[in-house]
Write a structure and sequence with these properties.
Length: about 200
């Protein structure tokens, strides 16, 4: 019974948080709801007996992708003074979300040693890490590589969107430095003894 309740709790919070990701007007709130959705999806994977996938979802997506999204959002032109004005009114909502996550983790801890049979057991009797590797790098290797290229293009697009050119800022021009000749960088002067060179 606790496993079924945990499944519905994670599923409901995941659906609600995913809807709030695309409906929130504040991009910072959207990223925070995305992190909440990732955590609940990881909880569902734990219920399914795929602990490795759950940990990868938390480490890679929450620890890297969502933080990257948050950095990109923070670099956008957002007036944070307006965001701080009504921050206290969201304190009860934040407390409710924290209590909901705590309740989900307690239910997950009670279910995890004996996960409910939501999936049929694997006939090969292998752990989920090996089964995932066998499927991912054999049958779905091309979509896996394409998804990596899509993430690379998205990262380059995020960098291009946030890259600003400002006037009056000195930048290193590596190409110009490499193409310099000896005549452009070294000047030999014939100085007589005792006269010195005046600064020009």
């Amino acid at each position: 019974m606790i496993g079924v309740l945990a499944f519905y709790a994670f599923a409901v919070v995941l659906i609600v948080s995913s809807l709030l990701v695309i409906t929130a007007r504040n991009p910072v709130h959207s990223v925070l709801f995305l992190i909440l959705a990732f955590f609940n999806a990881a909880g569902l994977f734990v219920l399914l007996g795929a602990e490795f996938v759950a940990m990868i979802l938390v480490i890679v997506y929450v620890g890297a992708v969502a933080v990257l999204f948050l950095f990109v959002v923070m670099m956008l032109d957002i007036d944070f003074s307006k965001l701080r004005n009504g921050a206290k009114q969201f304190a009860p909502l934040g407390g409710f979300v924290g209590l909901a996550l705590l309740a989900e983790l307690i239910m997950l801890y009670q279910v995890w040693p004996n996960p409910p049979p939501l999936l049929e057991p694997d006939v090969l009797d292998v752990d989920n890490t090996k089964a995932l590797g066998n499927v991912l790098y054999t049958q779905y290797v091309f979509p896996f590589q394409v998804s990596g290229l899509i993430l690379l293009v998205a990262m380059i697009g995020a960098i291009v969107l946030t890259l600003r050119t400002r006037g009056g800022v000195l930048r290193q021009r590596v190409g110009a430095q490499v193409e310099r000749s000896e005549a452009d960088s070294v000047e030999i002067q014939n100085v007589s003894v005792g006269t010195g060179v005046s600064n020009v």
